[in-house]
Amino acid sequence: MKNLKIISTLLITFGVIVLINCTKDACDYDLGPNISATCTVCADPTFTKVGNGTSCQKTTSTPATFNGTLFNVTAGDSSTAYGWGGANVYITDTSLYTYTTPPTGNIMQDGNGNTVNPSYNFTGIWLGGTPSTGRLNKVGIWGAGIPNNQWIGFTHCIDVVAKKKVYVGMAGDNRFRFSVNGHPPYAVETNNSNTFNFTHWHIFEIELQPGKNIISMQGYNDGGAASFGAEIYDATLSQIQLWTTDAEIDSATIFSTKDMRNQTTQIGNINGWSCPNGLAVDFCTGDSIPVCTLIQNGGVVACP
User: Fold this and answer.
1) Which one of 34, 47, 227, 243 is CB 3.0 to 4.6 Å from 42, fit for a cystine?
2) Using 50, 70 and 90 to split pLDDT, how confident is the model at 285?
3) How do the domains of the chain map onto residue ranges?
4) Average pLDDT over residues 190-206
5) How far is 78 from 43, CA to CA, in rounded Å?
6) In what order do the strands lie in the sheet with 16-20?
7) What is the distance between the alpha carbons of residues 160 and 154, in angstroms, rounded to a whole number?
């Protein structure tokens, strides 16, 4: 065995010891018949290892643009129409973005215009039909001063160690959309007033890359009653299927518009903070003024 110098970070994952930020001469060890040491570096030297050390990321920030008013947020309107169809679950594919609804009909479509059938429809605790049941009635927001015909919303940062699936639940009277890391196109954007946008709670499975991720969620009102709801669930699909109470949902919720009541909106296309396409409004730097962050993900290669 070579003389082991402690000049690197040891990270044990899946039975392999990964030595981070080292040179081949310093890392190429024979640690025994059942353990191997692998030296890797970021394929692009301007990137930094993130998560469990098997992926790399680069973040670049520039000033965000403030377009005007941030609106006070209260509970949204309630309706017997909200959530009467329960919750639909969709397994998304990034190559098929943007998911949307047509002007009429209770269907979701992918970016090619093909119908996307939900993988599951949940009723039970997800079912609306009264002014106090269904997720949109329970977590929806809006505000008396928010104008019609513009997007308003919030962002949420999530740091993950390895690739991870999370579930984004949304509904809107009249529209909703969300993006991941500001990358165009939107993962989901309903661009019409189809009532399907709020008669069902729509849950989308997405996969996050190791490191920093920013999910931007927005709602839009065409006029009349208004409510926008969004939540992010840190759970497996099998766990979600078993939920029967609000407490179970809340315990796995890492973001909810319900928690934004009595606060102010953050982002929007006319008011609030915004960034160019491809960059995300980033409130997670510890500063009260957000920045526009470009998030780039990359891989590792063997040490030279």
Assistant:
1) 47
2) confident
3) 9-58+298-302, 66-295
4) 97
5) 51
6) 9-13, 16-20, 37-42, 300-302
7) 20
pLDDT, tens digit, for every residue of 220-256? 999 999 999 999 999 999 999 999 999 999 999 999 9
Residue among 274, 281, 293, 216 at smallest CA distance from 62: 293
Closest CA to 179 of 230, 228, 131: 230
- Render pLDDT for 56-78 as a digit per residue (tens, 0 to 9): 999 999 999 999 999 999 999 99
Q: Tokens 């308003």 — which residue? A: 152
Label each residue of the chain as H, E or C.
CCCCCCCCEEEEECCEEEEECCCHHHHCCECCCCCEEEEEEECCCCCEEECCCCEEEEEEEEECEECCCCCECEECCCCCCCCCCCEEEEECCHHHCCEECCCCCCCEECCCCCEECCCEEECHHHCCCCCCCCHHHHHCEECCCCCCCCEEEEEEEEEECCCEEEEEEEEEECEEEEEECCCCCCCEECCCCCCHHHHCEEEEEEEECCEEEEEEEEEECCCCCCEEEEEEECCCHHHHHHCCCHHHHHHCEEEEHHHHCCCECCEECCCCEECCCCCEEECCCCCCCCEEEEEEEECEEECC
Average pLDDT rounded to a whole number, residues 124-128? 98
Q: How far apart are CA 170 and CA 100, in angstroms?
A: 12
